[in-house]
Amino acid sequence: MEILACRRPVLVSILKNRKFIKRCHTFSHNQQRSMSHIMQRRMDRNPLFKINNPQLSRHFAIMRVISSVLKLRYLVLGSAVGGGVSVSRKYQEWKDSLPDLSWLEDVFPNNNIANTIQTSLKSILDTVQNIDFAKIVEDISPIITKAATPNSKDYKQKLEISQQEIIEIQLRYQKELEKLEKENKELRKILLLAKNHKMNMRKVKKSLIDMYSELLDELNDYDSNYQTQDHLPRVIVIGDQSSGKTSVLEMIAQARIFPRGAGEMMTRAPVKVTLSEGPYHVAQFKDSAREFDLTKESELAELRKEVEARMKNTVSRGNSVSNEVISMTVRGPGLQRMVLVDLPGIISSVTQGMAPDTRECIRQMSTAYMSNPNAIILCIQDGSVDAERSNVTDLVSQIDPHGRRTILVLTKVDLAEKNMANAERVNKILSGSLFPMKALGYFAVITGKGNQNDSIDSIKEYEENFFRNSKLFRESIGISSQLTTRNLSMAVSDCFWKMVRETVEQQADSFKATRYNLETEWKNNFPRYLELDRDELFEKARGEVLNEVVNLSLVSVKDWEEKLSAELWNGISHYIIENVYLPAGYSVNQTNSTASFNTMVDIKLKQWAEEQLPRKSINIGWVVLKDMFKTMFEENQNQKLQASDEILETLKMAVIDEALKRHSWEDKALEMLRVIQLNTLEDRCIKDKHNWDQAAQFLTSTLENNLKVTDGLLKEMVGPSNYEKWFYWQSSTAEQTKRNNIKYELENLLHSNPNHSNLLSKDEQITISNNLKQKNGTPCELDDIWQTWYLVYRRHYFKIALENAQNIKKHFYHYQESNGLQNEYYDIEMFWRITRMIKVTANVLRQQITNRELRRLHKELKEVLDEYSQNIEMKCKLLTGRRVTLVEELNKVKQIQEKLEDFIQALNKEK
């Protein structure tokens, strides 16, 4: 409204309009003079006028004659003509005084308001401008002419007609002027409502009570227990259940805004109600933009349902009451500005359906709110029951024993009179001599007529009539100011603002000291860091996490394919050796035919490539992507250890883990990979020596690794060797000794027949068992022989295969001359196929990662970050430590201090 204040000439002109309109309705003193007197006065002042204007002299004589005949009529007609001239002149002056309204477009970015105001002003101007004052004179002139003929036969009849016509003209223009005044009021209303327009781009000054309410919300979040910081006043409405506590608040708010129940506890959570004056009677929740029109019963019902639903939502499972505050604002004409907190009613016992600790929870909640040393306690006492049955008065007396901030309100006094209550006893309550509890003031009110559907206006009328005619209060002297909710609300408002003015400066000083202490702690403990709160730290972590994906895209092709190839072989090597190579190699020893090797390998590889290999490869690609991402992230963090922020590490790792957990490989890549792998495995021809050397090296290293693993397993089975026993003081168990003896017999068998198959005949098993029994005197189970034979023969096979592989390294040219028709190179061909399949698969996976998966991973990281940014609990869990909480406390204190200073400044201006 500050901007509108600088445009006061508009409002002043509009308000002056009312005076201008009034002049159009009444006859001024100057307009009541006769035209002859006016002309005579002009001639007396200017002699030349009389001498040099003979024509005007004749006109003047005629006018004197007419005046003598129709003097009274000229009083009326002259007023009409003079009024028309005055209206015309006044309209022109008012129109010229109107300023340029183009500034409205800057004040109201929403063109609807500016257009409405301009349209209203234009309508007013058009209405006045359309009044043709010349036409008025023209319409009246024939009447004057007619009326000026006293010798006409129907003189009286014409005179009556003339008078009627004058009245009709006056009525017609009276309607126009009334329309003008109505539009003038509408314009003023628009200007007043523009004060609260929320879409204004400029900062609109808030009302004093709204500033104070927001300040209380900030303090409630900062210190809900009123232990260290929040000592600002608010009105705490407290009373026994069904004592009329909520009804008192509704009478002050002048609307039925709370749900009701017949004896049932309806208030289950604190409700903070901010009362302020406004053009419309509306209610609005703190966290909602919707306004409820309190003049409409349908919206009142919706408001009560919303309050009830919010109360139920605040109550956790198994509890009956909650400490979570429901904040709402009620605006309306004539409302006293204050902040009230409605608390659940004090109960004597817990009924069925309530939590067992409900009574104690309500008392603790009430005590906590009243413990604020500057809270005004509005203690509600049911006047229709015995005072000795009150629970609330004892509780209030304990918190405020001297009654320096307590106001006692006696409700339902009409029922007290109906029940023939002792007038003297009621007067004692209002004088403060009945209760041991002391108070600042004592009031008697009526908040209902027995029907919860009664309107506030009807209750107020009933209340005034009751106290005016009541026998109970008629003879009481000096207590009229203690009666009715109107007097109560005015007294509470006065007390509220008095305490606000007394305490707000002290509260501001307290926060200055708190801010100084927090800033000192930050400088001493975290001098190298910026003051970033949890949200700012999260945004910093967001940028660093997304940058890691960019860094991942910079990994070279060579690094990707080497990592993928290594992981692919690690993932499939067990299947290749155990399910393809060894079964095919064993078949060669059994059949003495190398052709069976290629046949078995072809069958097994094709079946494997169609069913398991593509899915296995994709899983390996996903694992490589995950490991590469985490490895690069950790390496970057180690390199930037001095510049990095360790408080963000937990958050970044959690985001990365969650994104990788959600990430899955594209399904359409599976079929494409299957076709490529099948085609690659079908080609067994080695075309150049480089590939031959690679395959031979791959075969040799694979056999060496498997031989080493087999030796380790066999050594674990048979125990330490004689060398280890003598030099390392190791010993064998009985089981290991038995297995060592079996191993010795099996090795002798293979030594005698190096080309032995992988199977033992029945006779060979019996022979070995008998030999062991004869030599050692201990029986040997066939299962023990089979288990030992598996490792012994496996090692034997790997040794022979390794010797062959080392021998054929130099046979490429012999292989090339035979065009690959020599069957003795079957194993190197197989490993060439595996090598080429791994290389091609690694290339395909690398392209999929760099072209598709990194972009999808980047998108998933952003989604996780967006979800976490909205999850306050997750941010609090992942961003912890004194550094974070200290910044939040400091920012909160700064924000509250600024609001306190703004409020103090506005409060001083109001004074």
UniProtKB/TrEMBL annotation:
Q: Which UniProt keywords apply?
A: Apoptosis, Coiled coil, Disulfide bond, GTP-binding, Hydrolase, Lipid-binding, Membrane, Mitochondrion, Mitochondrion inner membrane, Nucleotide-binding, Transit peptide, Transmembrane, Transmembrane helix
Output the Pfam families linked to this UniProt entry: Dynamin_N, OPA1_C
GO cellular component term of the entry, any: mitochondrial inner membrane
Reactions listed under catalytic activity: GTP + H2O = GDP + phosphate + H(+)
- Topology relative to the membrane: Single-pass membrane protein
**Is Mitochondrion there in the keyword field?**
yes
Q: Does the keyword ATP-binding apply?
A: no
| Gene Ontology MF, one | GTPase activity
User: What are the coiled-coil residue ranges?
Assistant: 163-197, 847-910
Gene Ontology biological-process entries = apoptotic process; endocytosis; intracellular distribution of mitochondria; mitochondrial fission; mitochondrial fusion; peroxisome fission
Give compartment(s): Mitochondrion inner membrane; Mitochondrion intermembrane space
Q: Main EC class of this protein?
A: hydrolase
EC no. given is 3.6.5.5
Q: Which InterPro entries match?
A: Dynamin, Dynamin_GTPase, Dynamin_N, G_DYNAMIN_dom, OPA1_C, P-loop_NTPase
Name of this chain's protein: Dynamin-like GTPase OPA1, mitochondrial
Organism of provenance: Acyrthosiphon pisum
The taxonomic lineage of its organism, from the top, reads:
Eukaryota, Metazoa, Ecdysozoa, Arthropoda, Hexapoda
